[in-house]
Specification:
Radius of gyration: 20 Å
Order of helices and strands: HHEEHEEEEHEEEEEHEHEHEEH
Strand content: 15-25%
Structural class: alpha+beta
CATH architecture of the largest domain: 2-Layer Sandwich
Number of domains: 2
CATH class of the largest domain: Alpha Beta
Number of helices: 8
CATH topology of the largest domain: Fructose-1,6-Bisphosphatase, Chain A, domain 1
Bound molecules: 2,5-anhydro-1,6-di-O-phosphono-D-mannitol, magnesium ion
Oligomer: single chain
Length: 340
């Protein structure tokens, strides 16, 4: 690929596919369809302040949370963009309780799409960045149509994963296991253009920590001790970190990817398993993080090694610069009374 060339996402996906002569083109089709869905969602997100699309629908999703209208729109757009291409055997979404079958009258394929159509939805009506998170797995069951077994695969089996960030610009960032590629939507031509080649977490990183400290009292002592130490309140001399927290995973991670630091959503007394969902949120972000040279852990093991047992399983999440995630694991495993 010539360095000076303007590379659209379609061209990039095609050029990636050519590296694998045995590729059928199905994965490329899925990524291309996802990019189209992202543009449709972006168009509505950008209009959110203009039209009467805001406000709650007045019912709860399977997580027991209020569903925003844009969530429903994003869910529908992704489903409709992906249901007919003959590349997927089923889908699962954070917004739906069970497996989403491909309609009987459409052909099926060998891949599973796992997605969170619009994450960080509490930020929609305050003009703060939100995102779509996706991952793609190969079907492993013998049947033609997907089963739960196809959806409950560890992140290490992921074929591709990534996210779309609806921020001051719209970006699509993904990895299919050969590095991380970032594309920015040029609204004047409606194309995602390759803007961030082979993204790596910076070294040296910014010393940023990102966590919702309102839950401090509900954390385990090791977690409390770690954050106190990051603020420079420990006994040892440690250059204090700075704090950044948006409350929108895609945006908090995207900053971590480009600047370095650590993002944490630990378990607490109210959420003993953490809040974030392993399949829809943690695993795809973990793939991008690892592929960019970072680490993603639940405090004890790599997120990508966890074998899910339930579609809506939650997990604690620590991710970002490798040495900071290692440090978090040490804090969580040490005697909380130790000085830092
Ligand atoms: P959602 O799936 O309901 O949008 O919730 C997920 C979001 C993440 O984007 C973010 O990291 C987290 O919830 C913020 O939670 P909190 O408000 O507890 O800090
Ligand atoms: Mg979510």
């Amino acid at each position: 690929m010539a360095d000076s060339a303007v590379v659209t996402i379609d061209r990039h996906i095609m050029e990636e596919e050519r590296k694998y002569p045995e590729a059928t083109g199905a994965l490329s089709n899925i990524l291309t369809d996802l990019a189209l869905a992202a543009k449709l969602i972006q168009r509505e997100v950008a209009k959110a302040g203009l039209v009467d699309i805001l406000g709650k629908v007045g019912r709860e999703n399977v997580q027991g949370e209020q569903v925003e209208k844009l969530d429903e729109f994003a869910q529908e757009v992704i489903y409709k963009s992906m249901d007919h291409s003959g590349t997927l055997c089923c889908m699962v979404s954070e917004e739906e309780e069970g497996l989403i079958p491909i309609p009987e009258d459409f052909p099926v394929g060998d891949y599973v799409l796992v997605f969170d159509p619009l994450d960080g939805s509490s930020n929609i009506d305050v003009n703060v960045s939100i995102g779509t998170i996706f991952s793609i797995y190969r079907k492993i069951s013998s049947g033609e149509r997907g089963t739960l077994q196809d959806c409950l695969q560890p992140g290490r089996m992921m074929v591709a994963g990534g996210y779309v960030l609806y921020g001051s610009s719209t970006m699509l960032v993904y990895s299919s296991g050969t590095g991380v590629h970032g594309f920015t939507l040029d609204p004047s031509i409606g194309e995602f253009l390759l803007s961030h080649k082979n993204i790596r977490l910076p070294n040296p990183p910014q010393r940023y920590y990102s966590v919702n400290e309102a839950y401090f009292q509900k954390w385990a002592l090791g977690q409390q001790r770690m954050v106190a130490c990051l603020k420079g309140m420990g006994d040892k001399e440690m250059q204090p970190f700075r704090s950044r927290y948006i409350g929108s995973l895609v945006a908090d991670f995207h900053r971590t990817l480009l600047k370095g630091g650590i993002f944490m959503y630990p378990r607490d007394d109210n959420s003993p398993e953490g809040k974030l969902r392993l399949l829809y949120e943690a695993a795809p972000i973990a793939l991008v993080c690892e592929q960019a040279g970072g680490r993603a852990s639940d405090g004890e093991r790599d997120i990508l090694d966890i074998i899910p047992t339930e579609l809506h399983q939650r997990t604690p999440l620590f991710l970002g610069t490798r040495e900071f995630v290692d440090m978090a694991e040490e804090f969580l495993q040490q005697d909380p009374d130790l000085p830092c």
